[in-house]
Amino acid sequence: MLNHTKPVSQELCRRVNDVVKELGYSTNAAARGLRVTQTKRIAIILTTLSRVFFTSVLEGIHKEATKLGYSLLITETHDNIQEEIKLVDMFVSQWVDGIILASSAYGKDKTTKAYIERLGKLKKKDIPIPVVTLEFPLNNARVGAVAIDHEQAAYEAVHYLIQEVGRKNIVHISHPTWHYIGQKRIEGYQRAMLEAGFPEDHCRILEGDYSTYSGHFLTQQMLKEKIPCDAIFCANDQMAVGALKACEEAGIRIPEEIAIVGVDDIFAASIVSPPLTSIHVPKKKMGSSAMLLLHDMIEHGCGTKRKVITLGFELVERKTSREDTENCLKYLEW
Fold first, then answer.
1. Is residue 267 located within the same domain as residue 290?
2. Range of the structural domain that residue 262 is part of
């Protein structure tokens, strides 16, 4: 009766509801799912909750999930593939309707390849559990994705520094180099440098770990070692903020001596001093698109046609690259 699956008299309905209120009873989503095949629960597995980028992504997911009647279960893997595999298996055993995943499956070893293949075949009691990845697609036609072109985004940032700002000694503070996104942004950096006529050994890459601390530490080391540098391209804004702080501590004038460009355009980009030039990634749209795509896969199946949504991006010019530029608050979300 509580699930409205059979007609009952108004009197019986009233009496049962009175008892339900008196006992404080509520339905269990997982148990209910055993009968109606949907739990209305979505698992969100992120690499790290400390990455500011994901805050806005989660807002986008939550907005659409609420409209569609889903509740969210959110956790992190600390960018550890074994932890990711364990969490995916846990959520399948607990039965969720779908999974939105920021994956750490970058390797080409047998275990990682087998795991990626298995992600397109997740089931509970013969009911498929679809998966959508954030930021980049996995090599599995049955796993959806919402991404940007990371190589092109990096290329445009570095091309801007060379052609528009006139910089020649551009250092790249990268994501971990084993990371898919890190590799693609390195490729974009190198393409822009080589296209501009710089030799390959002119490309200087310092490997960071996403964090503000790594951007700060690597910039300190660069300045200490007197590596020629008139611009820094950081693979994300958190590292760019660290680079900016290190330059400030060393008395480096920004952007006159060193220009800085980041990626993501997190809220901090607009409020640091000087404000940070960054590649704007539509983070809320990434989250909402992922939730809508997952819902479509839950309702209509994964099918055989690859479902990948590629979002656009935009370079937002601020004062870390041009002193006479107005601070752009167009995308400030804080």
1. no
2. 150-280
Q: Over the stretch 126-158, which tens digit does the pLDDT of each residue have? A: 899 999 999 999 999 999 999 999 999 999 999
Sequence length of the chain is 334
Is residue 137, in this structure, part of any structural domain at all? yes
Taking a C-beta distance cutoff of 8 angstroms, is the pair 257, 286 a contact?
no
CB of 96 closer than 8 Å to CB of 39? yes
Report the CATH number at residue 105.
3.40.50.2300
What does the pLDDT look like over 187-220, one tens digit per residue? 999 999 999 999 999 999 999 998 999 999 999 9
Query: Is residue 325, in this structure, part of any structural domain at all?
Result: no
pTM listed for this prediction: 0.85
Q: Are 237 and 276 in contact (CB under 8 A)?
A: yes
Residue 150's CB is within 10 A of a number of other CB atoms, namely: 25
- Write down the H helix ranges in the chain: 10-23, 29-36, 53-68, 81-94, 110-119, 150-163, 180-195, 212-224, 237-249, 268-271, 283-300
